[in-house]
Amino acid sequence: MAKMYHKEKSIQIKSSASALYNNLGVLRIAPRCLTYFTVVHANVVNMVSASWDGLNYSHRQLQSKEGSMATSSSLIMQAAWCVLPSRDLLVLTSQKGIQMYESDGSIMVYWHALDTPETPTAKAVFARGIAAVRENYICVGVSSGSVLVFDVPSKGSNITLSEVLEEHKEAITDMASECSGSLECIADLVSADDSGLLCMWKSGDDFQLLNKIPGFDTSCSSVKLWKGTVIAGYGTGQIRLYEGVTGILHAEVNAHARWIYSLDIAPFTGLLLSAAEDSWVRVWHLTLTPETNSVEIEHMYNECITDTQICGAKFCDGDGYAFAVTGYDLSEIIRYTQV
Amino acid sequence: MSTRTLPLLFINLGGEMLYILDQRLRAQNIPADKAKKVMNDIITTMFNKNFLEELFKPQELYSKKALRTVFDRLAHASIMRLNQASMDKLYDLMTMAFKYQVLLCPRPKDILLVSFNHMDAIRDFVKDTPSILSQVDETNKQLREIYTALSVGEFQLIRQTLLIFFQDMHIRVSIFLKDKVQNSNGRFVLPTSGPVPYGTQTPGLIRMFSCVGEEVKRLQFQGGGNYNASLREGSFEMYGDRVIKLGTNMYSVSRPVETHMSGTSKNSSQHTKVNTTPNPLAKEELNMLARLMGGLEVQKTTNIDSGFRVNLFATDEEEEEAFISRPDDLSYEVLNIQATKDKQTNAELAKIMGEFGEAGETTPSSSSKGDDLLAMMDGL
């Protein structure tokens, strides 16, 4: 196999990554030639702003402070940037609720508290799964299986909870919106849960359920939606490709030896990144042929991050020219770029 | 995160503690009757009915400090005494062993098999004492009832919660270094070969389907690594073959608990980071801890002459040296509480803490009376 990517200088972070699904956030700020990264460590989010020339790194740590309350600090489940046409927001989900920050992490603009019981119950309470949808929606999953839809104005903090979607019975694991930018795709959003169930949604004043794709006794830990195709990664190490609206299974890949933690797609090229607890990061290539309604997947590249259970992997650009990886107990973000 | 984590953490750490103590009791030639008494007393305390009732209630994990306090108490539930350096070492070995098991267990659900391996060994320790055996079996039953009903997602959450608990602990352990399952920087070796977890296919196959579900194309890919098919699934029954070996006793006469100093990460650059931010959970946690430990019966050492000390080091000099040279950031700073507010809770805690007086800790003088528990935590 030809060497497709080579390792770049790593970015050090202030505290190590926790073992959580999709534990790496990447936001590219082209006008300023900067890339932002986030990695969750227990009750802290490490944020790094890195200049493209590799000369400047600035660090910031966000605590999971719950609104203005001086209550206990809770564990964070996920941090992700939501890119809407009018603004970018950094969204944090925790055991206590959902926090939305300006994209540089400077100001918290919104706080949504989860209903937490007085004494702990057998079922844990948390929010997990974050996606920006179309013009003005940010959707966040909850451990009860609910999907919260927030309506976000183009500026200001007047964010409102506009709808709660109740189709999942188990904890939401991940969510993704259509990333090709194509308006022809009917489905805008896919939500996944601990039972492996996938729900396809069309956004609007009322979100519409388009289809349910059943699971198979394992969690779907990471999901992506590209040109109407759902790409789902599972606890069995499998990747499955479905046509979202019909639920037709296009492909099934025995991709990893252990639990998949992260998937990402480069929307311009169809490159797919998968990463798992088995220390492997793999790059795949997806080809869609609309005429025959077929989807093909081909394996391109492997990288082993020795002795690391990978918890986050993301492309750093829309072409898949570079990607970044982090893993449990690792205090760095490892970067690779194409040769 | 998962509110079902504490019982598994406690039982597995407790199991590792028993393995180590069993080995040290033999190595130090402690008379069989005394050694037996120590093991029986500790196991009786561990599986005390009231204690387990509190333990199995859904709750968040304690801080490292609080849990260490529980195990200090447990280790001293009999006539055996450990001084600070030996207790530190014991706790290091226990925690690194269970971290290794959590990290390496093939599927999140296999944490339960690891727990059963510990439970099976504990049963064996007390097989001649029916009253204790029935206590252990009762716990086994409870474990099965609660945990076999959980989904894979819930087990993954438990595993992730445990991994957060053990995060940044990189203490080097001789037996792991010797077995080449731990690197000199304290990180564990993760194999990219051998059997895949039960229910997982070996990586390397792509299958593509037509719209009507027919397989139209099959491709192999080179994924690296050298995996083979999974072993059969271990038994989740009361008795049975657990198949996986994680959680079984790794110490034996020929593989003793290492007692020389290289085991601790004296010169390692990556120490456990002590959380220096004040913990607002402290008060809540202290109350939980008091409730939990209230269930731990206090074993009175009536005859002081029958007591003895166990050393986790080869000689007393080495132990002393370890105590002095232990880096501050690796110190567990065992909770030292002079409670004042809730009379009952405090009396209980004071009683519990009184047990450790001989280890030579000093009590914070600022917290003499009438203070808030939170304020007292600052002095610790």
The CATH superfamily of chain A is identified as YVTN repeat-like/Quinoprotein amine dehydrogenase
- Low-pLDDT residue spans of chain A: 67-71
What is the assembly state of the chains in this entry?
A: heterodimer
Give the strand tally of chain A.
29
Q: What percentage of the residues of chain A does DSSP assign to strands (E)? A: over 45%
The counted number of beta strands of chain B is 6
Mean pLDDT rating of chain B: 80
Helix content of chain A: under 10%
Task: Please tell me the total number of domains of chain A.
Answer: 1
Low-confidence parts of chain B: 260-281, 335-343, 354-380
CATH class division of chain A:
Mainly Beta
Classification by helices and strands of chain B: mainly alpha
The greatest interface here is: A-B, 67 and 59 residues
CATH architecture of chain A: 7 Propeller
Span between termini of chain B: 26 Å
Q: Helix/strand/pairing class of chain A, anyone?
A: mainly beta
Protein name (chain B): Protein OSCP1
Pfam family, one (chain B): Oscp1
GO cellular component, one term (chain B): plasma membrane
Pfam family, one (chain A): WDR54
